[in-house]
Specification:
The complex is a heterodimer of chains A (94) and B (425). Chain A is of the alpha+beta class and 94 residues long. Chain A is built from two helices and five strands, in the order E-E-H-E-H-E-E. In chain A, strands 2-1-5-3-4 form a five-stranded mixed sheet, with helices on one face. In chain A, a hairpin with a 4-residue loop joins strand 1 and strand 2. Chain B has two domains: 239 residues, Ribonuclease Z/Hydroxyacylglutathione hydrolase-like (Metallo-beta-lactamase, Chain A, 4-Layer Sandwich), CATH 3.60.15; 168 residues, Flavodoxin domain (Rossmann fold, 3-Layer(aba) Sandwich), CATH 3.40.50. Helix content of chain B is 33%, strand content 23%. Classes of the chains: A alpha+beta (94), B alpha/beta (425). At the A-B interface, strand 2 and helix 1 of A face strand 22 and helix 14 of B.
Chain lengths: 94, 425
């Protein structure tokens, strides 16, 4: 199974995960301070900054795109409850 | 007692048209009011148009419209500004827009979603404004200042440039109802001003400081907030007080680079206390961290909230009694909504008799409060062994290393993370 390496910059931890894992699943296990509200892509509480490796993430869905825009998120931001890692290296600010 | 006034002129052609709610004793569940509150709204008349600044709670709409009608006709209203969309300020908006359909509504960008959720009218037209945008009323210019998170994402302030009047929304407001309206005429409301700041603005003090950077350079003759007295006597002193309240003080003592780690514990037989001491001792070995150790048995939670506000890391030690952490710990952990704790470092530890759930429960709470909890806590069955105390010592050391940024970067697989979690459960 393809793997991805997700680095939590503030924590100094890199987690090797199967492709397809959502960021929320990793961050809650590793103790990052990303927090979660609805977990369904509606509230925008889990917006997280991708420092590098956005190309290794799933595309924004219409819902995620809408919520990010409504929250005036930048191009480097994703919803942790929606964004999946596809492979390669990804670094997040958490 | 002063009777409820008609519309009150606060400056030439600018009126207070709000509502008084003297019977209110609890505001939004979280606040007590000793003598009610006011919902302040204002009317600004220019040569080319009339602006209404904020409305009132829906239950008080009639009072608002009565005062409004004393100073303007509905067809004269060209502009409606909502500085903040909470229902106590937007409650009369739908009816006002129905009565003055020609008026243009001005709100901040962050307010638009709230507006849709509050008004439930998809046909509603509005204009988004940001810092520096203006609306010309003819001889009266409204200038907007974006002051987000004071105390909602949408909040903004509006200045009447020619009169130096700042309509500040909830900022500089308080729950104090006195029909004499002005700060130099009402009763002593200082405690209400402080109380309001402590409960409403304090969690957002970084945003308070950002807003003050915008507002302090202004020449201000009157600050007209959305609750409580209108501040026409020494208005600048209220900005100064906000700056005092929002400015962190700890680093005056320990230097900007030193981190503060607070270790709280409570202990029945001294076991969790010994663990707390070991956590503190471990943390002490790392330069650049000031470690403080506190017994939660000894004091109420109020002073600790102040300490936590400025700390970088928090560790909580609790025994497990009947499958739970003990009440003083929960009391403290349920008192933190008035400060910002997001992104601080958190950890838990404690002794237990037969199950030891308290540690995971505290860690979950810390995560819920948006702290980082990267290091699994230490549990010890009854009297901690030397090995368990050593693990507490390591926990303290690792916490301090995290605080100083001297962490050993590591790689771990998801399956190892899951296994760690299961072994800890």
């Amino acid at each position: 199974m393809p793997k991805a390496n997700v680095t939590f910059e503030k924590l100094g931890v890199t987690v090797t995960v199967p492709a397809g894992t959502r960021l929320i699943e990793i961050s809650e296990k590793v103790g990052a301070s990303i927090t979660y509200g609805c977990r369904e892509g509606e509230c925008g509480t889990c917006i997280m900054r991708i420092i590098s490796g956005m190309e290794n993430m799933s595309e924004r869905s219409v819902l995620e795109d809408k919520v990010l825009q409504e929250n005036m998120a930048g191009r480097s931001d994703r919803l942790a409850c929606q964004a999946q890692v596809l492979g390669g290296d990804i670094t997040v600010k958490a | 007692m002063t009777p409820a006034p008609d519309a009150v002129e606060i400056a030439p052609s600018t009126h207070w048209i709000g509502a008084l709610d003297p019977a209110l004793r609890d505001f939004d569940i979280i606040l007590k009011t000793a003598n009610g509150t006011t919902y302040n709204a204002y009317c600004v008349r220019g040569d080319a148009g009339v602006a209404i600044i904020d409305t009132v709670k829906e239950s008080h709409a009639a009072e608002f419209f009565t005062r409004l009608e004393q100073v303007t006709r509905y067809d004269e209203i060209s502009t409606i500004v909502l500085n903040h969309l909470e229902p106590d300020h937007s409650g009369a908006l739908p009816e006002l827009m129905r009565r003055a359909p020609q008026a243009k509504l001005y709100i901040s960008a962050k307010a638009q979603l709230m507006l849709k959720a509050l008004v439930r009218n998809s046909e509603l037209n509005f204009n988004i404004v940001k810092t520096g945008d203006t609306v010309d009323l003819g001889g009266r210019t409204l200038r907007f200042f974006s002051t987000p998170f004071l105390h909602w994402p949408d909040t903004q302030c509006t200045l009447v440039e020619e009169q130096n009047i700042l309509f500040s929304g909830d900022v500089f407001g308080c729950h104090f109802c006195d029909a004499r309206l002005f700060n130099d005429r009402v009763g002593d409301f200082r405690f209400s001003f402080e109380y309001y700041y402590q409960h409403i603005m304090r969690p957002f003090r970084e945003h308070v400081l950002e807003a003050l950077e915008l507002l302090e350079p202004l020449t201000l003759k009157i600050i007209a907030p959305a609750h409580g007295p209108i501040l026409r006597e020494a208005p600048r002193s209220y900005l100064q007080r906000y700056r005092q309240l929002a400015t962190p003080l700890l680093h005056n003592e320990i230097g900007a680079d030193t981190k503060s780690l607070l270790v709280f514990y409570i202990s029945s037989y001294g076991n969790t206390a010994r663990m707390a001491q070991a956590v503190a001792d471990g943390a002490e070995t790392i330069a650049g961290v000031r470690v403080s150790l506190y017994d939660l048995q000894a004091a109420g939670d109020l002073p600790f909230v102040d300490l936590i506000e400025e700390a970088d890391g928090l560790a909580f030690g609790s025994p497990t009694i009947n499958g739970d952490a003990v009440k003083p710990v929960w009391d403290l952990l349920s008192s933190l909504a008035v400060i910002k704790v997001r992104d601080k470092l958190g950890a838990a530890f404690g002794s237990y008799g037969w199950s030891g759930e308290a540690i995971n429960m505290i860690e979950d709470r810390l995560r819920g409060l948006k702290l980082r909890v990267p290091i699994k806590g230490v549990r010890a069955k009854l009297i901690p062994t030397e090995e368990e105390l050593e693990r507490c010592y390591d926990l303290g050391k690792q916490l301090a290393q995290h605080l100083t940024g001297n962490i050993e970067r590591k790689t771990i697989s998801m399956s190892e993370l899951l296994a760690q979690e299961q072994s800890h459960a």
